[in-house]
Amino acid sequence: MAVKVRIPTPLQKLTNGQDEVETEAGTVMSLINNLDKQFPGIGERISEGGKVRRFINIYLNDEDIRFLRNEETEIKDGDEVSIVPAIAGG
Amino acid sequence: MKFTKDQLQRYSRHIILPEVGEQGQMKLLKSRVLIVGAGGLGSPVGYYLSAAGVGTIAMVDDDVVDLSNLQRQIAHCTGTLGMPKVESAKITFESLNPDVHIIPIKERLTKHNILDLIKDYDIVADCSDNYATRFLVNDACVLAKKPLVTGAIFKFEGQLTAVIPHEGPCYRCLFEEPPPPGILPSPQGVGLLGVIPGVIGTLQAAEILKLIIGRGSVLKGELLIYDAMKPSFRKVKVPKNPDCPICSDHPTITELIDYS
């Protein structure tokens, strides 16, 4: 088992068009680092200086990690993580 | 105010719904909604609110109709190419329903004009196409305590939420600040499936109608995400941020910011 991560449309260029990828369990920050190893460049889009960027949210299942333990939130095998950036088209 | 015979017929499918009735329809006719943006999202929002008999609808947009808009912006047509979008939308919506008064405002929203523009309206719909306007509209609605229904789209997906100031979270509780230019791809120039604004805009209109008639629950404290490719609708929770820079009880933003 691994952790399923939903990649939003604006970042799918970095995942070769995949809207869902798998990575290892751990904290949110280690998950971002693992993603960056698999898809170089994605880490700095999502976070900066060890913090998730302020126009991107990460949800563990349907809970915003800012209201859990933020970047230290533990993600277990079988959890579903989604990355949701602000989008602006109208 | 009493319904005319034509109005009873025009709105009969509303009036026979117990949740709407004559009372709800009268509320719709007396309500005032301001729509920011007369493009992809503003078209279905304005179209359905007009059909529903929302009495006064202001459309704010400083752009003109371009041929590349017509793949999705259904308020406009080949015959209105080159016309200001707000004028084109006025023709379309008022010909659908002469009960409705469309107020065209061909201006760009700024921190200087927004509070004055929204003050006479009950509800604001954010149908804009850029981050700067989205944060400006949110902040102004929080300061003026105006309910806001915000929709946004990108390629094959859309987002929707409702902000009821000081009751639920605001857009900044969800996203604290706009991305610096270049970090995320801009919506212009990446393409957009033409029906996406139709789906999200129609859902925005549904939230607005419920807010006006006061029935059902609205999408506050939640973000609805639509992905046409899956296809899927899913919701995530949006808690009120106790340290929100604009809507918490110790705000750090006390005047409007122009990010553009």
Beta-strand residue percentage of chain B: 15-25%
Weakly predicted, low-confidence segments of chain B:
none
Q: What integer value in Å does the Rg of chain A equal?
A: 12 Å
Average residue pLDDT of chain B: 96
- The helix/strand series of chain B, from N terminus to C terminus, equals HHHEHEHEHEHEEHHEE
Number of strands of chain A: 9
Largest inter-chain contact set: A-B, 25 and 46 residues
- By CATH reckoning, the class of chain A would read Alpha Beta
The CATH C-level name of chain B is Alpha Beta
Instruction: Please state the second-level CATH architecture of chain B.
Output: 3-Layer(aba) Sandwich
Cα separation of the termini of chain A: 39 Å
Q: Which strand order do you get reading across the main beta sheet of chain A?
A: 2-1-9-6-7
The global form of chain B is globular
CATH architecture of chain A: Roll
Strand content of chain A: 25-35%
Instruction: Please describe the biggest sheet of chain A, giving its number of strands, its sense, and whether it closes into a barrel.
Output: 5 strands, mixed
Give the overall form of chain A.
Answer: globular
Describe what you observe in this structure:
The complex is a heterodimer of chains A (90) and B (260). Chain A is of the alpha+beta class and 90 residues long. Chain A has helices spanning 28-38, 42-46; strands at residues 3-6, 20-23, 26-27, 47-48, 51-52, 56-60, 63-64, 74-75, 80-85. Chain A has a single domain (3-85), classed as Ubiquitin-like (UB roll) (Roll). Helices cover 18% and strands 32% of the residues of chain A. A five-stranded mixed β-sheet of chain A has the order 2-1-9-6-7, with helices on one face. The model of chain A has no long low-confidence stretch (mean pLDDT 95). By secondary structure, chain B is α/β, with parallel strands linked by helices. Chain B has a single domain, classed as Rossmann fold. In chain B, β7 (222-227) and β8 (232-237) form a beta hairpin. The radius of gyration of chain B is 18 Å and the shape is globular. The A-B interface holds A 8-10, 13, 19, 45, 53-57, 59, 62-64, 66-67, 82, 84-90 and B 37, 39-42, 126-131, 134, 151-159, 174-179, 183-187, 192, 197, 223, 225, 227, 229-230, 234-239, 241.
